[in-house]
């Protein structure tokens, strides 16, 4: 697709949005499109073609925290759209369908930053800022939302009863994390090796659950000792943990 065709397609999309917003018929849409091209040509011939001084960048945010995607286009007074995964969030600064989203910054200075008040997994997407009349678009920016795991759970806890001479099998799971959590087993402040692991991708295609099973031979078990399962991921490096106490009967 040529640059001209790309510009035309972008303007057509903007035109359709304007038609819907203003209630214009198809003929009105053509008039709007003609005005857009006339305005773009005027700016280019006068050496005032609009350009970005700030564009959104790839960012990583932990769920629940705010994040701002930058977009600044000085000397531009037309309509700016924010696009999320190919769909327009609204027209101009009106994002009323998305109560956690705000367009912030000095409009007169060409600032159209997108602020997300409390990032959520549904905000994990690719964003783009577009200036309709100038027929320019920013680079696409990936917003990655990290989600900490649920509190880990050791099956059968908090007290595991065991007959003397029997081996110990423990299973711990940490669910709904992005990325998947890592699990380590500990006792007496030291890591226990030899556990097995399995991960499950959830239906949303983004979060994962992890399950770990630990086997301890009878000769290595002490009555009353505590065994810890700790789950960590990038959203919570310090981790979450739970423990069980062994009761040998």
TrEMBL record:
UniProt keywords, alphabetically: Disulfide bond, Glycoprotein, Immunoglobulin domain, Membrane, Repeat, Signal, Transmembrane, Transmembrane helix
Domain (Ig-like) ranges: 50-144, 149-245
Pfam families registered for this protein in UniProt: C2-set_2, I-set
GO terms assigned for molecular function: cell adhesion molecule binding
Domain of life: Eukaryota
Subcellular location: Membrane
BP-aspect Gene Ontology terms: cell-cell adhesion; synapse assembly
SMART domains recorded: IG
Main location: membrane
Topological category with respect to the lipid bilayer: Single-pass type I membrane protein
Signal peptide (from-to): 1-23
One term under GO cellular component: plasma membrane
Family from the record: Belongs to the immunoglobulin superfamily.
Protein name listed in UniProt: Kin of IRRE-like protein 3
Organism: Lonchura striata (white-rumped munia)
Taxonomic path: Eukaryota, Metazoa, Chordata, Craniata, Vertebrata
